Amino acid sequence: MNEEEKTPAEGGVTPDSQSAPKVAEQAPVETMAPTPPTPPPAAENQAQEPQGDGGHKLILAVAILLIVGGIAAGGAYLYTEYKNRVPEFQNPEALTGKLYLTLRKNSANDLPDLYIYDFSTKNLEELPVGTTEDALRITSHSTSDSSQVAYAAASQDGVLQIFSTGERVRQLTNSSIRLKRNPEWSLSGEKVAYMAERANRNETSLYKPEAWSVFVVDGEGNERYITDGAYPQWGPDDNTLLVLKSDGLHVFNIASSTAVRAWKARGGAATNMKIDVSRDGSKIAWSSPEDGQVLLLSVSSWSPFEASYIGKVPVHAFWVAFSPDSTYLATQSVTWDSLKENPRARVEVYDTTTLKGGKVFGLDAYDQEAMFVTDWN
């Protein structure tokens, strides 16, 4: 087994948030300086001192300083814009299929909802799922033939459950476990893996992967606990799951209830990192937004697990999703040095061989704190 040590983000965010909580700064208190005394009027016959050349030189020097300062400020702004420029994807006609997202409009009255971006029509539209319009819906994933879409939504009792579309909407889970999300269909379409808040986690930070638990539910609604960790991704069959833990990526065998660490995280992993496995099981993507990179691995065997290092995509990205044929990787990218003020959230696509790519469409109209890119099919 080959291991590539990866520097994870320090700290992290919950899957509901793509950046650290914003802390309001106390506004400075305005103070008023005492009014200076009014000087006595000059005598009418008092001689006026001539201004001379010194005054003109002073005015000229101040003007020059202002001009130079303006040029410097403008240059700094242009440099920042140049540094943060986002190139466009150069071959958009090569992209096919649909990208599944969860978005919330920049309005306090809107709830997150499910969206699809069609690469052929270049349209971003809400995904109709047949439930009430005011329901909270997040994180969707489709079967390989796109006949069903699994998603998390708040049921009538307010607990997030996993639902599925198809000929009709079905509720797949019915447990009281909180914060269910990130459902993932197995290749057979018979099972769904998902993550949820760990029972009795006490004060464990949601930034830590082990604050979450991984479950699998079948078509009959039978839910089974698998392990503690986050972002379960199916391997090449219904028996293999890849899970993010604090010390790296682990491959879990459901039948034998055994696991091995597949790839090490130097210093520890956090839940602001995301992972995806291509549908054919040949590639793994692992984002580290604070480090500005997405690690790509090529998998030659899942049992025993063997993988090799492809490279790193140099992008500050949270969510990652492979194209159906694993040729491309979509990322939910941001501009890191202005994340709180202007994240410039967008979807970028990269070639998994050349590691080159660019922006496909922007997400400025949506809240970056409630943004998921969870599937491409």
TrEMBL record:
Keyword terms: Membrane, Transmembrane, Transmembrane helix
Parts of the chain that traverse the membrane: 58-79
Gene3D superfamilies tied to this protein: TolB, C-terminal domain
SUPFAM superfamilies: YVTN repeat-like/Quinoprotein amine dehydrogenase
Protein name: Dipeptidylpeptidase IV N-terminal domain-containing protein
Disordered as annotated region, ranges: 1-53
Keyword Transmembrane: yes
InterPro entries in UniProt: 6-blade_b-propeller_TolB-like, Quino_amine_DH_bsu
Superkingdom of origin organism: Bacteria
